[in-house]
Amino acid sequence: MKRFLIPALMLGLAACTYPHEQVRTVDSRPSLVVVNAPPFSTLAVDGIVLGQANDYAADKAIRVEPGRHVVRVFSEDQRMIHEETVFVSGAVVRQITLPEGKK
Question: In the Cβ-directed half-sphere of 8, how many Cα atoms lie within 13 Å?
C-alpha cells in the first residue's frame, strides 16, 4: 500500500498548478503617421527629431500625448519641407500627408 501511496501523492502534486495572472495595458494615446514623405527625410514632433519620416508610415505610428503638436518634415539636406500644427485627442490616428510637389 505504501508503494502506491507515494507515487499517487507525487502525481497529485504534479497535477496542481499555481494561479496564473496576466495583466495587459491598453495604450489609448493618439498617434501620428506620415504619408508621402520623400526618401531620407527627417521627422520632428514638437522640436524633437524622431528619425526618418518614412519609418512612421501607416504600419508604425508614433504615439503622442493628447493636445497640440507641431509636426515638421525636413529634407535630406535639412531644409524644412513641411510644417503642420495638429490637435489630437482620444485613440485616433492622425495622418500627416505631404503634398506631391514637396519631394
Answer: 5
On whether the CB atoms of residues 49 and 58 are closer than 8 A, the answer is no
- Within the chain, residue ranges assigned H as helices are 2-15
Residue 52 host element (H or E): strand 48-52
Q: Is 71 a member of any domain?
A: yes
Q: Bridge partners of 70?
A: 85
Kindly report, residue by residue over 5-37, the tens digit of the pLDDT.
777 767 666 666 667 788 888 878 999 999 999
Q: Which CATH number do you get for residue 47?
A: 2.60.40
Domains in the chain: how many in total? 1
62 in Cβ contact with 29 (< 8 Å):
no
